Every structure is written in structure tokens, then in C-alpha cells.
Amino acid sequence: MPELRKDPVLGRWIIIAKERRKRPTDFVIEKPKVLGGFCPLCPGNENFTPPEVLAYRQNSPSKNNGPDWQVRVVPNKYPALIIEGDLGKEAEGLFDKMNGIGAHEVIIESPGHNDIFWNLPVGHISLIFKAFRDRLKDLEQDHRFHYVMVFKNLGKAAGASLEHSHSQLIALPVLPRMIVSELEGAKSYFQYKDRCLFCDIIRQEIQQGVRVVCQNELFITISPFAPRTPFEMWVLPKQHASDYCAQSDAQLTGLAEIMSQSLRRLDCCIPNVPYNFVLHTQPLRLGNIEHFHWHFEIVPTLTSIAGFEWGSGFYINPMPPEEAAQYLRESLDT
Q: What are the tens digits of pLDDT across the range 279-307?
């Protein structure tokens, strides 16, 4: 029988359609085509991108636009929002609008054109997470911005337009509705129980074990109780922390280990699966928040959004998260 499951943070309902139950081999993923040709993100082509705003060369930050980089961050050549100008907030009758002010940057994750994020050395992945942190800290100084969304699109079906491994960030002058809803849901729980909802989720998942994918000393990956898609995963720090920017280099190394292992398990279950991962952290300049817990959400592109989903806000997932977690746990053992 199908189940309706309620997300404890957002309150949204998910339909777990057990009668449509699938195994990992039931998801047919077309192997990505290698296009070849010119790549503006490859070393030697630095002049084809805007000047870098951050780069790590031999683990130290520098900006010289030379080809000897390990991780490089540049403004997006075709930005969704632009950094120059004033917000210009105004009303048009009952409607509100403002100028499209923000920042849109590309994190070039490795010099190697064919490198795979999860297959990079842990030390290199930690540099990527360090770049996220350092750019967030820098953009926090601009008081026009209230939130920075960090995300990765892998594969054409997940929205990627370039083959070269990269992620992106967009600084926003407003708070995204998703983050507002998470903050509100977490605060409501905290006011009722005087505990962080995410910390309680971590404790319960460790006790039950059925939705735990993997863990290390500092982080845990789980299949959430009400996942939107098959094999959705959340990666959370075990100790309460609301601000990703407060993570030390050692903590980011632990994060690199768990993210590499989580994505490796996903690829073992469904090779070449397209996915998005998104950082959920607190709004800028708020200090520590007792009721919120930063985390990454990994969402594979395995189901389609059609009329029912758009009209109802419900997601239909053909795989219970307990089964997905089991497949993921066992994936590296086969």
C-alpha cells in the first residue's frame, strides 16, 4: 500500500508509491556523451573567463589568472544576477520589484577536464569546500546580500551545461522561500521542544540505523524519512552548527570524506546518475542559530515533475528510503 509521509522540517507531504517499487537497475541512465572541443574552464584558457576572484595554488589562495591552479573561482560569464548597481526597490501597484543585483560565480573544481568530483583525492575535495566557505565569508561583507546559495548540477538532466567539473554560487538580496520555510519549521520545533530538530533527526537515525547510508566521526549521511526522489541523501554535521562558514579546515576534510563516499555509493548503485547537491546554511550575518542545522542535500534526477506534482506540491517517490539506504550501504561491498 502507498504511504503518505510528512517531512518534519518543511511539513510537505511525500507519496511513497511502494507498488511502483524499483531496484537500482530499473533506472536506465544514458551514458553521457563526451563532446570534446574547446573548454573555457580548462587550464590555459583562463583569458576566456572573467578574472578569478579566488584560486588555490599549492593550497594557498592567490589571484594571478595563471594556469597553475588547483581550484579556481570566477564570475559567471552569463550571470543570473549582476553585482554592480543598487537594489532600487519599488512597487508597481500591489506588486514589488527590484533590480537584479547579486553575485553569480563558478567554482572550477579541478584542472582535469574529465575529473569526477567524488573520485578526486579527499584533500582536493576539501579545497573545493574551503572555496565555498571563503567565498561565503567574502560575500557576507556586502550588506546588499542576505543569502548565498551554493549548488552543483551534474549531468544535462540536472541542469549542467558544461562537462568540466564545476559548481556554482549565487548571492541573493532576498531569502529563498525554501530557506525561510526550513527556518520557520525548525524554529517551531525548537520552541515546542527546546531542541534542534535536525539534532533529534540525527540521534533517531543513528539509533534506528535503517536510513543511515554512511558516517564518520564528524558527519553522517542519511536517506531522509520523506525523500522527494529515489536515493535522495542529506549530509549533516553530527555536532550542532547553523553556519557553514564556521567550519574549520579539519571539519571540511571530514565533510570531503563523507561526500566522496556518499556520491561514490550513489554512482555504484546507478552509474552516471545526474544529480544536484545544494548547501542549506543560515542567512548571512546572523551569528549562531540554536534551532537551525546546516547540511547538504543530494537529489538525483530520477523522477519527473508533472501535472500532479506542480498542482499539489506533492512528490511521488517509487522507492522507500529504507530500501534506498540499504542499497547505498551495500553498494561498495559488492
A: 999 999 988 899 999 999 999 998 888 88
Residue 11: pLDDT over 60 = yes
Does the active-site annotation cover 293?
no
Task: Specify the amino acid at residue 183.
Answer: L
β-strand pairing of 166-172 with 103-108 = antiparallel
The CATH-assigned architecture of domain 3-333 is 2-Layer Sandwich (3.30)
Q: Average model confidence (pLDDT) for the chain?
A: 90
Sheet holding 219-222, edge to edge: 60-61, 54-57, 71-75, 103-108, 166-172, 147-154, 275-280, 295-300, 233-237, 219-222, 212-215
d(CA 223, CA 72): 32
Q: What is the mean pLDDT of residues 18-23?
A: 69
> In this structure, what are the phi and psi dihedrals at residue 82, rounded to the nearest 5 degrees?
-115, 150
* Residue 295 cell numbers, joined: 547540511
Q: Are strands 103-108 and 71-75 parallel, antiparallel or unpaired?
A: antiparallel
Q: Are 288 and 243 in contact (CB under 8 A)?
A: yes
Delimit the domains of the chain by residue range: 3-333
pTM of the model: 0.92
Contact criterion met (CB below 8 Å) for 333 and 327: no
Packed helices 249-269 and 321-330: angle between N→C axes, nearest 10 degrees: 100
> Which helix (H) or strand (E) covers residue 105, if one does?
strand 103-108
Of the candidates 102, 59, 60, 29, the one whose C-alpha atom is nearest the C-alpha of residue 272 is 29
Sign of CA dihedral 58, 59, 64, 65: positive
Task: For cell 579527499, name the residue.
Answer: 122
Residue 250 — φ and ψ, nearest 5°?
A: -65, -40
The one-letter amino acid at 158: A
The active-site residue, picked from 104, 124, 164, 166, is 166
- Lookup result for grid cell 573545493: 128
Q: How far is CA 57 from CA 94, 110, 111, 139, 247, in A?
A: 51, 11, 11, 21, 21
